[in-house]
Amino acid sequence: MAEATSAPAQPELKRAIGPKLLLFFVVGDILGTGIYALTGNVAGKIGGALWLPFLIAFVVAFLTAFSYLELVGKYPRAAGAALYTNRAFKIQFLTFMVAFAVMSSGITSASSAALAFGKTYLQSVIKEFFSDTFTVSATLVAILFIIGLALINFRGVSESVKANVVLTCIELSGLVIIIAIGVYAVLAGDGDPGRLTQVDPAPNQTALVAVTSATALAFFAMVGFEDSVNMAEEVRDPVRIFPRAMLWGMVIAALIYVLVAITSSLLIPADELSKAGSSALLKVVQVGAPGFPLWIFSLIGLFAVINSALINMLMASRLIYGMSNERIIPRVFGAVHPFRRTPWISIVFTSGVAIILVSTADIAKLGGTTGLLLLVVFTIVNIAVLVLRKEKVEHEHFRAPTWVPVLGALTCAYLASPLSGRASADYEIALYLLAAGLVLWLINRVVHGKVEFDPEKLRK
């Protein structure tokens, strides 16, 4: 009888991604809102040594990448941190909170992109083509931006990895423009190299805390590499291809970030970058290449934040939908529209949360919260890889040196802690988001009782 009612076996996903496409995917997933929107905020925390937080953030992310590589080689499935947490600790509530934290990081990341869209790059385009007296509410634009993403999400979006190559090239072009401006400035004898070693702590703050607080914020720019593990089932020979593609992708992204940071500090004092906020890179273009059409860079910036926001909102709504299907949050979130075939309740919920965030928080707080949530997740993943060493698999796979996940867990935990100088607002926003997840969990327990779930199905 069980055989008669069981669902037919689903075919495997097509393994169409080779090493070059995976490399572009990793680079494209990292590049985006972080560097385009938070350069000025990071400068305000550290001073002229703007490149240092991005370099340290890369090192911390690089350590964690080794843990992801060992786990994706060991379990080449599309579930990521939730799967690893479930396998290692077998605590359903912890698995749920990890999945919900990842979902929340997608919403905060998309919200920061929405604010960058409304407050920075769109405003620049408006000033270029319209009178300076023509103004629009940046918050209203950000809300409309979120609603627009929701409509696209509702309609249904299917992006191939090959299309991601084009998107990555466009995002990359804006950062290459900044680096080219820096090279030109150095060759012309412009800029002040002395700024590159300046660390300017805030009053009653040590130099170490200035560096770590800036790194905690800059870490937002390095996240995204972990999303590539969700492509594992569509990669040809993932055990062999993943390590080189992920690590080289992170190195390329970090090199670009450091060069952009060096260019910014060379041309503009840290206090001016800080005052510019999310428009810091626009100021770099203005100062370093006054003849360059600013609207071109603004359009590239618009594209970068739109792409980042759309990907993150898609991920967030699908995770909520997956958790509903697994009956770990109320089933209403799993409702699928009969015509569009998209999870419309999940889309409305995640979009509503994003609208609240863009109405009440700024870019720095949202970027910091994104980094905080993922640093906590990364701490758990680094511990999970050590716990899962006792679980053997038949096939060969990448194995990280033991000291790497240990150091990865310690550095991630430190950057997530108040000791790093992290703003208290980051914890407040994160707690509100996770509290919402706890409420959904409790409602479901009251209605359905204890439910066992499979995290491998969350993103499918």
Automatic annotation (TrEMBL):
The chain crosses the membrane at residues 21-38, 50-72, 93-117, 129-152, 164-187, 207-225, 246-268, 294-321, 342-364, 370-388, 400-417, 429-447. Keywords: Cell membrane, Membrane, Transmembrane, Transmembrane helix. The keyword Magnesium does not apply. Its main location: membrane. InterPro entries: AA/rel_permease1, APC_superfamily. It holds the Pfam family AA_permease_2. It comes from the Bacteria. This is APC family permease. It is a multi-pass membrane protein. It is found in: Cell membrane.
